[in-house]
Amino acid sequence: MKRKRTPPVARTSPQSGSAGPRKKYVMRLFVAGATTRSREAVLRIRHLCEAEIPDNFVLEVVDIYQQPELARANQIIATPTLVKERPKPARRFIGNLLNISGLFAELDLIPPPKAAA
């Protein structure tokens, strides 16, 4: 039985000749319609991924109005919600995506800064 997959909106591939295998980050951003808040969330996440993990991520943007079944299946209760599916463990970040450093630390995309001694 085949699973139906939604094609990602933005897809990049690893650079050839890079040193060693890298983990591919797979993320879904759930937004509500074509609002200013939704557009800002999409731009912010794309910019962040392109700056921090270039050529190493797949970002799928899901409009919950156009794909309500995906929102239900992923138990989305608020937007914007960013879900990091891979590498495991899966993580979620809900709300305004303004705190970029906190967002990346919470999603385990980069290690949190070490506390000064």
Account of the 3D structure:
This protein has a single domain, classed as Glutaredoxin. The protein is α+β, with helices and mostly antiparallel strands and 117 residues long. Residues 1-20 have low confidence and may be disordered. The chain is globular, with a radius of gyration of 15 Å. Helices cover 26% and strands 22% of the residues. β2 (25-31), α1 (36-52) and β3 form a beta-alpha-beta unit. Strands 1-3-2-4-5 form a five-stranded mixed beta sheet. The protein is built from three helices and five strands; from the N terminus they run ββαβαββα. The termini are far apart. The longest helix has 17 residues, at 36-52.
How are the SSEs ordered, and which strands pair?
Blueprint: E1 10-11, E2 25-31, H1 36-52, E3 57-63, H2 68-73, E4 81-86, E5 91-94, H3 100-106
Parallel strand pairs: 2-3
Antiparallel strand pairs: 1-3, 2-4, 4-5
What would the keywords be for this entry?
117 residues; alpha+beta; Glutaredoxin; five-stranded mixed sheet; 3 helices; 5 strands; 26% helix; 22% strand; globular; disordered N terminus
Brief rundown of the structure:
The chain is α+β, with helices and mostly antiparallel strands and 117 residues long.
